[in-house]
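Let's do one together. I've listed all components of the complex below, 604 residues spread over two lines.
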Amino acid sequence: MSIKGVLTALVYREVAWLKRFIGDYVTIWLLPSIYGVGIVFLPTLMGDVDFVLQRFSSLFNHVMTLTDALVFSLSLSAILTVVAVTVGDVVQTLYAEFKVYGSFTIILESTSIPVYVLATSVIRPLIMTFLSTLYLVPALSMLLGSTGLSLYLQLLAALTLSSLVLGVLSGIIGVLIVFYTNVKRPWSVSNTIVPILLSGSGVYIPLQLVPLVLRAIASATPIPYTVELIQLVVLKEFPPEVFTPLTVISMLFTAYYIVAVSINKTVDTRVRRG
Amino acid sequence: MKTIIIEHLKKSYRVREGFRETRFIEAIKDVSFYVSKGEIHALLGPNGAGKTTTIKILSTLLLPDSGLVSIKGFDVVREAEKVRRIIGLAIDVSKGFYSSLSGFENLVFYGLLKGLSLSDSRRRAREVLELVGLEELKASDSPYFTYSLGMRARLAIAKALLNDPEVLLLDEPTLGLDVESSRHVREMLVKLARDGRTILVTGHNMHEIEIVSDTVTIINKGEVVASGTPNELKSRVGLVLRLKVQTTLDSEPLLKKIIADSLYVKRVASRVNSNGRVEVSAIISSNREDVVEVLFKASKEHGVKILDLQLIEPSLEDAYLAILGVLDEY
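Okay, and this is what the predicted structure of the assembly comes out as:
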């Protein structure tokens, strides 16, 4: 069957789910924004706002105003949402389809596992990244005026690229959990992976405080490079240095894509052999 | 014209035991049969006989180890894509859909996966939901998790019909259905076959299978043990009639002797009922007229009292059990 058909089917299913669970989704999308702003401004409990802005300015080697700090914290919150939504959704949906709903029969009788898993790994992050970061449009517009929209589009591009890599990586993790392990509670795996990736990328706390092993794990994902990209886009207005993290993210995408195709083909043969 | 052809099909499963040891289970040792166009063919057998594996191979879900399997001339291994376009599958009717999506949404999703356009998927989904009676039950827009087993089975059949397939593969489509739903499904199958569709169906309800199927293949332990029309199977195993006569205690020995001497009897037995009557039962290979004549003669000429009489035609179930060698003759 055509890849177009599979992609259309997945978009249809996502939209149907979205309509049914819109309240849940909006909550999941908005909570990280409060959390993101909270992380940045938590130190104001101990000192005043100027103190926090000074510390931030020295940390990022860039003089920050209150607006800058708010824009940065909101932008950073988007990555929390994207990582949580992408990893959790892709892993858990694959698990549910193959182990709970039994809907894999529909998939196997219509298409192949490589096509389906890769399409899921791409479609879900694309839709979810766009929808889960929509709150940035009014937020950034209020803070920056007309340039807010332009910044949002740059952030969206960076986050979309990052979520595509995460989606393919989550597809690999999901397939490994479903077909090569006896894990009965996949959400416990995805719920563990998300904080490891985020903290290892320096999203929650300064990287210097993060154990090396977490940093090493996170460095194999696009998140630290996306954080770097967001810093550059927000604080330095798209300097030429952005091409370094962009290149690394693209290379990661290629590498994970090759691994995913190979694993999914093996799994397809294995499943059809019984 | 042979629509489904299965020749010398073999399939083993590899079962891992511990870290190193692997064991092979032969699910299908050697299965061959064919199904003609417009025919309802029933694939019967006990649990674990290989019925579902056969259906899965035909529907391209599983790869065979060896043998030829084709549908409308398309090989299920080499031309899997073409096979998928012409078949409709209902397997494990109790699940297989997204629980939070409605029946309609599940079908549209499936239609899109199968390559239909969005408008065609929506139109066909409504048509087949109406056909299986789910529109009538106002259930097509409710989430799947609210469906009863009967509604789930109907949705599974609706899914099988969505792409207007020429060949239907149905694995126990009436499993767990209430009487009305089962009847609805049976009538639908007959109608679909009349419209020219070829149907391969499995099941354990012999009464249903006997009503709907044109031909039957019985498999056991991965091998075909019998094949033919239900009537052919019945006569092949020599089952003609099951006789039950109620008589008095005095007449019992004589009646048993007459039956045993005058008819081709495989087995004759008797037991005393709670009402004090004796029930003599026998499995008889003679024809119906001979049995009636002997019983009238016994009554008229020998004074045997016949209080009640039942002459039961053998069913497909009897033939099936006899073929599998587990028929309880009494």
